[in-house]
Amino acid sequence: MATIIGGIGTSHVPTIAMAFDRGKQADPDWAPLFAGYEPAAAWLADKQPDVLVFCANDHATTFFFDHYPTFALGVGDEYAIADEGLGPRPIPRLRGHAALARHIACSLVEDEFDLTIFQGLPLDHGLHSPLTMMWPSRPDWPGQVVPLMVNVLQHPMPTPRRCFKLGHHLRKAILSYPDDLKVAIVGTGGLSHQLIGERAGFNNEPWDREFLELIERDPERLAAMSLDDFRRLGGNEGAEVIMWLIMRGAIAPAARAIHRSYYLPMTTAMAVAVFE
Amino acid sequence: MANYLFDLERSAKGLRINRFLHSFATAAVRARFAGDPEQAMADAGLDDVERDMIRRRDWRALMEHGASFFCLEKLARATGVSNPEMVAAFRGETLAQFLATRRVPGAR
To answer: What angle do the packed helices A227-234 and A205-217 form, to 10 degrees?
Structure first.
């Protein structure tokens, strides 16, 4: 049977990918970011999960507002790297675990989460900006992914409660997969940032620190908050941290953070946490 | 202070400009725009107001018009503009003014 070995919460800022692709590891402005990801990379190298289930979002790249899905599950065996205006990043195509993804699709729809299903589409930085910090991409990825894409761009967005519940049912789906697979869940987004309006540039480090505590110790309290609460505390775009609640709902309730890092250099607070 | 929440009303209002901005995720569109921006905008059916905002790269006006930040990002990447430059424009600041408010101004 499949097992869930733990989870990772991580920002997915595009500049994380830029820093990686430009080899900024030794640049003092970026070194703290790379240092923060080292324990997450070491954990993945040690635990060797077969599959990473990624709770992430598309940034009006693959999906556009002529048809923007609320929850979309990728069921393909391969995902191209999306062009976001500069050409695709120079990293290998992602390999998908189609059989697990199909199983998750059936299980979640059976549980009344009526997902959009996609295949054969490219994925943007929402998934692979953190991935290259944690998983070796050369010569090829060490495992496969299942992308679960969430609408955190266009309101109405799913509520924090709905995301937490989806995580619970995602757990049930994965644990009922018959083959022996080691699965880790990755929740992406945040932390505090606002990109638009006069409040652009807003951050809230005290709230970010509190969020990192609550996602570990009291996710129920986060699930009970409204999206307005998340926007007020973490900025309009920072509310995307509700995707961490999917991850938190899918890992063991008793899981504890074994690593946390936080870096706020520019516009978006960049955090990574490992839960086991 | 307006919150610029990207809701269905804003999405409907900005659909045409967002479709144009989104198209910059395609290399052929970028090449066409670089070669003849006026023709590219005409082909996309942009009205005079929209063409003027694109010509001037008036990020703030585009945002107020209904452009999604994530669609604006495509045009920005294609034309060599960074996110801190866009964020500064939304705040009504120069890039230098915005960077002075940041902890690590070189991290961009």
So the answer is: 140
For residues A160 and A243, what is the distance between their CA atoms, to the nearest angstrom?
A: 8
* C-alpha span between A40 and A271 (Å, rounded): 11
Domain topology for A3-275: Protocatechuate 4,5-dioxygenase; Chain B (3.40.830)
Q: Helix, strand or coil for residue B106?
A: coil
Q: Which of A196, A230, A237, A263 to mutate to test the interface with B (most CBs of B within 10 A)?
A: A196
What is the interface pTM, i.e. ipTM, of the complex? 0.95
pTM over 0.90: yes
A125 is catalytic: yes
Greatest pairwise CA separation for chain A in angstroms: 51
* Domain edges within chain A: 3-275
Interface of A with B in 218-237 (CB under 8 A): 231, 236-237
Dump pLDDT digits (tens) for A24-57.
999 999 999 999 999 999 999 999 999 999 999 9
CA distance to partner chain B, nearest, from residue A19 (Å): 8
Hunting for tokens 């003849």 — which residue is that? B36
- The token duo for A223 is 């699930």
